[in-house]
Amino acid sequence: MLPDRISSTFQTASQGLAVQRERLAVASRNIANAQTTAPQGSNNVYRPQSVRTQGPVQQNFTQVLGETLGVVKKTNSRHIEPYQGPLNNFNGQKMQGLGPQFNVEEKESFRFEFDPDHPDADENGMVRYPDIDLIREMATMVSANRLYEANLSSIEAEKEIIKRSMEI
Question: What are the residues facing 128 on neighbouring strands?
Answer without folding.
Answer: 112
